Amino acid sequence: MIDLRSDTVTRPSERMRKAMAEAEVGDDVYREDPTVNRLEERAAEICGKEAALFVPTGTMGNTIAIKLHTRHGEEVLCDSRSHILDWELSMLAWFSGCLVRAVQTQDGILTWSQIEPALRRFGPHNAPTTLISLENTHNMGGGTVYPQTVIDEICSETHARGLKVHMDGARIFNASIASGVPVARIVRDIDTVMFCLSKALGAPVGSMLAGSIAAIEQARLYRKRLGGGMRQAGILAAAGLIALQESPARLALDHENARFLASELAGMPGISIDPAAVQTNIVIFNVSETGLSTAEFSAELKHRGVLVNGIDDRRMRVVTHFDVSREDCERALQAIAEVCANCTAAAAQRA
Prior knowledge:
Order of helices and strands: EHHEHEHHEHEHEHHEEHHHEHEEEH
CATH superfamily of the largest domain: Type I PLP-dependent aspartate aminotransferase-like (Major domain)
Radius of gyration: 21 Å
Strand content: 15-25%
CATH architecture of the largest domain: 3-Layer(aba) Sandwich
CATH class of the largest domain: Alpha Beta
Number of helices: 14
CATH topology of the largest domain: Aspartate Aminotransferase, domain 2
Structural class: alpha/beta
Helix content: 40-55%
Oligomer: single chain
Number of strands: 12
């Protein structure tokens, strides 16, 4: 199977497996796991932050960050298709007791001119906005990247009002490679940032949350409350260290493969896509004109050895990663072309 459902499906490299087998470990809840400690130090260094925390998942990292910056009954402002809103089981409400103030955008990228009118100030009839959350790259926006000037303006204006900014940077290394801006510069003015080791970087498990020493000390307690104290976690952290060392340099290849897929898809009957909109490793395309639902389209592709998921009843999402080669992309395109051709032929017969 050629698996293009997500970059979460990657399998650990031989170097990762070897590092995991040989990892020096201790009890991380006691802060005695040297491999976890090294991973946290390295993540903080890359982000230009004082400290970092190893967590099992990106959802846990985002959940903890939101709790750090808010109190029950306050509002968090984010894009209307944000991961924290649509894909994290309402942890923002369940754990932090906050309400989302969702702002619609064209491509998942919020600007200060969109944020400012939506801010809620404390008063007798409304809860205040206390946190702005940015997603970079933006998953449902199609892997879009925040321009640095936009991030800088949002942080400056937000902090001037005494509010905080969190970045869901699950794929921030993709954003860095695409923009040419180092991760530390991207998040320089961000209060907390979460990034995933288990997506584009290819580690089997884990994410990192980085911020100030005070924030991460509190985050450690929230991690324990959520069941994230993993004891001899150095076995997992070892793969994360390899991922940080080796994976960022090859992300450009994933971006090239995504652009290749998009350019070829654009010429297929029944498919609608703007190849110029593809910035990183995520490709979203509309299949409604084929006459198939996304569930039917997925089933046809699976029958041909390709795994792709729909994100609604009209649009499919393809994600490139290091377990997918250019040859795999070509084979996937052949399968998609076959499905589209069959749909065209069936429509002609009906006419």
